[in-house]
From TrEMBL:
PANTHER family: PTS PERMEASE-RELATED-RELATED (PTHR33799), PTS SYSTEM MANNOSE-SPECIFIC EIIAB COMPONENT-RELATED (PTHR33799:SF1). Its main location: cytoplasm. It holds the Pfam family EIIA-man. It comes from the Bacteria. This is PTS sugar transporter subunit IIA. Signal peptide: none annotated. It is found in: Cytoplasm. InterPro entries: Bacterial_PTS_sugar_comp, PTS_EIIA_man-typ, PTS_EIIA_man-typ_sf, PTS_IIA_man. Residues 1-124 form the PTS EIIA type-4 domain. The keyword Transferase applies. Keywords: Cytoplasm, Kinase, Phosphotransferase system, Sugar transport, Transferase, Transport.
Amino acid sequence: MIGIIIVTHGRLGEELLNSAEMIVGENENIKAVSFERGEPVENLNEKVKTVIGELSNCNDILTFVDIYGGSPFNTILPYVINSGYICLTGVNLPTIIEAIMNRDTVETVEELKEICINVYKESLYDVKEIYERRRGNGSSTA
């Protein structure tokens, strides 16, 4: 099984996980770690270390962070370098849902990474542009 860790500023990761579980149901081996305002980075390091220990039964770990170069990213980076974890930045709800739904069907964490990257690229739309294009084709619904 591929474990999933979401590390973010504030409670973003926790709420992304809560929202994903509303849609796909509760899951094992997925953890969210929050970096709270005013919290020392050392605390974040300890929380991440604890969560990694809780996922020791997983074959691989896919990590998500909110911002490239932020404290959550910098905390995960040593695990990427030293343990081969994969870290994707710019986490959003569609990528978390797809990671959960596909992690048991892929052969490798690399495959899961590619699915998540593709979903990320396909999950941002200009709604006005879509609506206007559909109106131009004679369709009155979005």
